[in-house]
Structure formats: structure tokens, C-alpha cells
Amino acid sequence: MLVKSEFPELNRTVTLDGVEELSKKLDQLTRDLRKDILTPNPRKHAPTFTSTQVAEMCGIDRARLHYLATREGSTLPQGEVQGNGRIRNFSLAETRAWVQQVSPIKRSPLLEKGEAAGRIVVTSNFKGGSCKTTTTMCIAQGLSLRGRKVLLVDLDPQASLTELCGLYAEKMLGEDDTVLPFIYQPNDVELGDVVQPTYWDGIDVIPAHPTLFAAEFWIPSQVKTVKGYKFWSILRDGLAPLRRKYDYIILDTAPSLSYLTINGLMAADGMVMPLVPESLDFISSVSFWSLFNDMTPAFREGGDSEKKFDFVSILLSRVDNSSTSSAPIVRSWVQAAYGHWMSQTEVPASSVMSTGAVGLSTVFDVSKWEGGNKTLARIREPLEEYCRWMDDFYANKWGTTE
Questions:
Q1: Can you tell me the distance from the alpha carbon of 53 to that of 103, in angstroms, rounded to the nearest whole number?
Q2: How many whole angstroms separate alpha carbon 77 and alpha carbon 65?
Q3: What pTM was estimated for this model as a whole?
Q4: Closest CA to 166 of 196, 138, 145, 124
Q5: What domains can be seen in the chain, in order of their start residue?
Q6: How far apart are CA 252 and CA 281, in angstroms?
Q7: Closest by alpha carbon to 346, among 357, 334, 361?
Q8: pLDDT tens, residue by residue, 350-378
């Protein structure tokens, strides 16, 4: 015989008042969490570097670094002397100065002539959890450590990249700090007016804010009312003047083929698609290209039939190399589908990235990790290698006619 439960039945009805109450509760909860993560105030601090690390970046040994730093008339940063004077710690800005002046890395036109030949790179993927935003920040940091000046542009209303830059979007920023004013009035507003510095020397940002979603209503309304409105080229035109000020402009897009994502793709010279080697992620990437292809007739009719990317790079991220992982199978699918678009570099899954995510940071933000430097290097080195590949790709084009 079944005994009727004496537990009271839950009332699962949710009213608009209930949603409002939950929203206020969650707002307070996230405010408290951010205080713990970014105390005091939403602010981050760049890492410092040892003389050994700086010497390695410059392609010299530590003795040579010490000589160059202390010789008479040296203009190189001397860092902060530790112990017996043979050990030095360098700030990020000092480290970048060493790389720019001493390393064999090719100097950019920005350093040589005062005017950059900036390239625009977009990171895009439909699938959430693909490490897209973290990868965007890591690429910017990796390129800056090669002496480059980088501008990040956050096109995702979730503003995750903005928060990785140390800015609390909902409390510190408004829609006027984003690309939105330019979207509304491209003839009267300049994107350069909303560029902000970040905690990381060499990286500036155009932030995002939840109100950025308004662009998804404004742009189609203009398509309907303005004859010949090129909804896909707004950002391309706005970013053009900034190419002279930055070696790289890196765009982070929402996980959807939104109007801002389309603008990012059509503005970009190169594209990076971080892809976790799992079946659903692979299928999502296929859908991305199918939908993007559906848009191309509009581009051709609008006079942009010559659009091209310098490269499209599929970067396998958060790769699980355990014996039970499906990564080998999905990797073979990616190889068959994308061929030479697939990068030879892979970013492995790591607790370093998971720990960093909790603190709104990346592997490049970590000076020392409690899990050990070898574990830190395992995740950092592939990202450095990828940045080196991208930078060499474009450095070889400097001074050439394309």
C-alpha cells in the first residue's frame, strides 16, 4: 500500500515580482563576490618578472642582463635589486622595455616610425565555455610581452573580457564607454574617444556593458529605414584610424552570430576560433560557418565581395589528454574538416586556468603558482608559442606591399 507523502508540495510558481526579488538577491551576491575577487575595488595588478625571466625573453643570459643594466650610461630599466645585487625584479613596463630594446624580436613600425601597421584579429565561437574570452586576453598579453601595443575591443554584452581587464562593467561603466555611441552616430563619434588603459602595460581596451545588446535592435532598424546601409562594415570603418596607434587590435565577440559579431568578422584581418575538442563543440563550429556563409550574399551585393582573411586559425583549447578523453576522436574530425586551418598548437586543460578563472585572471597574470612552475609552464608555453606564430606571421609582412 502506497503511503502518501507528508512533505508539503512546493509552489514553483514564479511571478515577475519573484524575478525582481531574485535579481536583487543575485546582484548583492555578485557584488559581495567581486569584493572578494577584486579587493580593493575592481582592480588588478600586473605580474612582476625575475631577471632570469627577463633575460630569457630577451634571448640573453642573466650575466649579460646584469651587465647591460649596470654599465655606465645605460638607459635600460635596472629593476628592483634583491639580496646581493645579482637578483633583480622587474615590473611589466620595465620588462616590455627590455624586450623592445634588447631582444631579437623584430621592432614594429610603431617603435621604428611612430605609426603602427595595426592588424585586427577577431576571436569567435558560437559555443559557450570554449575559452574564447580567456584566449583573447592571453593573446593580447602574450603579444604585449613581445613588445607590442595592443587594443582589446569587447563586443560581448556579458563584458567578461572587460572584467578580465580589471573593469567592473555594471558599476564602473555605461553604454557611453562602449562602441555603442559610435554604432548610433558613426559620423559624429570616434572610437578612440572610448579607449581606456588597463592594469596591464601595453594593453588598452574599449569596454563592453550589458546595454551593448541594444546594438542588436538598432542595426536591423537602420537596415529597414536607410537605403544601402552596410550593417556589416560599421566597426571596420571606425577601427581604421586606430590601426596607426596599435600593433594589434583584438576583438572579442559574443557566442552568437550577432550583428556586432558580424561586424567584428568583417573588420578583421585574421580570425581565431578556440575550440574544445568535444563533439558538441565541433558541431557548433560547423553551424557557425554555415550561418556565416548564409550572410555572404548580402556582403557581395553591398560591394564587399573581395573580403578575405589573412588566416583562419582553429585553436584546440582545454584539451583533455587523459586515456578516457574523446579528444583524439574529435581532433581527427577537426583535422578532416579544417585541414591547414587547424593550428599545430594545442592548449591543454589545466587547473591553473580553472584557478585563474575564479580570480578573474589568466595564466599570464600569475607570477608564481603554488602548484609549481612546471605546471604553470605547461599551460603558458603553448599560448606563448601561439602568440609567437601570430606575431611572426604579421612581422614578416611589415614593409612589404601586399
A1: 12
A2: 11
A3: 0.87
A4: 196
A5: 49-102 (no CATH), 107-395 (3.40.50.300)
A6: 18
A7: 334
A8: 765 555 545 678 889 887 655 556 777 88
